[in-house]
Amino acid sequence: MERSDEQLMQDYQNGDKDAMKSIFQGNKLRIINFCYGLLGNRADAEEAASDVFLAVVKYKDYYDSKRTFSTWIFTVARNQCINRIRKRNKTVSLWYAAEGNDGYEPWEIPDGGENSREILAENERAHHVRKAITRLPYEQREAIVLKQYHGFSYAEISNILNCSLDKVKVLIFRAKERLREELASLIGEELS
């Protein structure tokens, strides 16, 4: 039977070193993707994720088993990202800025098969959404990324962002409203 992250963390606190390996393997990609969503650069995201797991090791005794492990580790990840952003002291794009593609990650190029148009249309929609998300204020961006890309509940987001449930609801509502406006604007720019 597979142990939950909460049980693994308790086992790790009690000296089971293998439990940390399981925690790392089970959460590595989620944490990297979350950091990538906030930092906008894959290398920075991987470094931040490493720092997150080092912090989990260093501060293992601070984990409170009354909280869900995912809320705790995402709070640690958020704090690591905020610290990195402060150190960079500049505005951050949500996605990696690759050269030669207008500041966004490369699109998947279809091979000309039956689904080529659908793939291109989906790439274009994804491009517009990414571009619109980068224009959101940071708190709204954080909340919408946690909700839409990582599937956290409002209560979990409230714990991760250390704010009230009502504030989370407002942040996500405003983010969605602003995304609608931004997407309409982006699509309008393309049509003109």
Q: Your description of this structure?
A:
- The protein has 192 residues and is mainly alpha-helical.
- The protein has 2 domains: 1-92, RNA polymerase sigma factor, region 2, helix turn helix motif (Rna Polymerase Sigma Factor, Chain: A), CATH 1.10.1740.10; 107-192, Winged helix-like DNA-binding domain superfamily/Winged helix DNA-binding domain (Arc Repressor Mutant, subunit A, Orthogonal Bundle), CATH 1.10.10.10.
- The protein has 8 helices and no strands.
- The model is unreliable at 90-110 (pLDDT under 50).
Strand segment tally? 0
CATH class of the largest domain, named Mainly Alpha
- What would you report as the Rg, rounded to the nearest angstrom? 19 Å
Query: What is the succession of H and E elements?
Result: HHHHHHHH
**Share of residues in strands:** under 5%
Structural class: mainly alpha
Distance between the termini: 58 Å
Task: Name the average pLDDT.
Answer: 82
Which residue ranges are poorly predicted, with pLDDT under 50 across at least 5 consecutive positions? Answer: 90-110
Based on Cα principal axes, name the global outline.
elongated
CATH architecture of the largest domain, by name, is: Orthogonal Bundle
> Biggest sheet: strands, sense, closure?
none
By CATH, the superfamily of the largest domain comes out as RNA polymerase sigma factor, region 2, helix turn helix motif
